[in-house]
Amino acid sequence: MVGAYLSDRSIQYIGRDGLTHVREMSCGVPQGSVLGPLLWNLAYDAVLRVSLPPGVHLICYADDTMVLTEGNTFEKTLSLAEVGLARVVTKIHGLGLRVAPHKTEALWFHKLPRRLEPPSTSVRVGDADVQVSKHLKYLGLTLDGRWGFEEHFERLVPRIQKVAGAMHGLLPNLGGPQEGVRRLYAEVVRSIALYGSPVWSKRLSSVQRLRTKLNSVQRKMAIRVARGYRTISFEAATVLARCPPFDILADMDARIYAESRTISQRSTDAEVEPKALRQQARQQAITIWRVRLEQERNARQRTVGAILPNFEAWLARSRGNVTFRLTQVLTGHGCFGEYLCRIGREATPRCHHCGENQDTAQHTLAECSAWNPERVALVSHVGSDLFPSAVVAAMLAEDEAWIAMVTFCEIVMAKKEAAERDRERADPSRRRPRRADGNHRPIPSDL
């Protein structure tokens, strides 16, 4: 097959005269979806078979070659590594290939206490000396000597922020794509964030500061999916967007990888379908997420409390889309006197429409007399119980109830927003101050 592929080859191209020409090819690099990897594996297999001293191991992935050396002391390990490297480099040169020292990295893996560091040294690779550094990038992961992955996340978070920031302009709160498209964009961020997660998931689960870094990015993306104010909490944003926390998803991926590997190594005729394995792992992840949300500091949040009794149904729903104004009512972050007072936009939390002392999301939904006509239409579909969890349950049960709730929120919140704009025009001091760069000053985050 290989011989047939390499013989009697020709190339067709359109010349400057506009005509099609055929030219016989007797050299060059043959390309093909199957042939390329096959020829590489046949040739590079000689490198994998090179004789190495005890304690030296070789790992190859495509054209990335890693030489691992183990030893009891740094000096002996370095000496052994240079012997192994010399043999590997010689074999690579024998294939007509060259090792690029400027692309070569070296790293000590060790178990030294935090106060101690391995010696600063270099290792000989061919005709060049490569400095042993504190980090090494391999197959997209940034490794360090203690497998702490701090540097990996230091580099990962800005990259995710850049991608998420580029998507913000595509996902405005008003207008823009529907929820399904927004969730698709969020999956792009997720795939970048969770690359290689079976390797580092345990570290992420055990170190709060690493989770905090990832949570900050996921929260911003989830807010874009849910069309929410930027002050809503991580828990509220991820629940509304139906995006489990990254650390839970990382553990899920690690379990799937470990169980798949165990099954593949087990000598049995009984096979578990990959789809069933993933469904089981996802159900475990949802259970873990639910337990976390049931903690008091999370469950008392308006959004979490509304969705938690209907948690599984909310995650699995196929009907309805969350909207900017629906999210305001479900979170309490929006054009409500209590919220505007809290962020310094109102002097008091009173309701401008009925005169009550507290204008909250629940007051707007269930109590404010100014919205009685709109509320009558809502109650006819969702029932008289306008407690958030009851409303969400009704929305999940019938399409008409979902539409009725969205309609109520759109009409009422649009009127409240218009009234707020009128008050701002009448009293410019009510407007949110701007910074010197022209942007609004940050609004304090609130859980």
From TrEMBL:
Biased composition (Basic and acidic residues): 417-440
UniProt-annotated stretches for the region Disordered: 417-447
One Pfam family this sequence matches: RVT_1
Reverse transcriptase domain location: 1-143
GO biological process: DNA biosynthetic process
Protein name from the UniProt record: Jg14784 protein
Gene behind the chain: jg14784
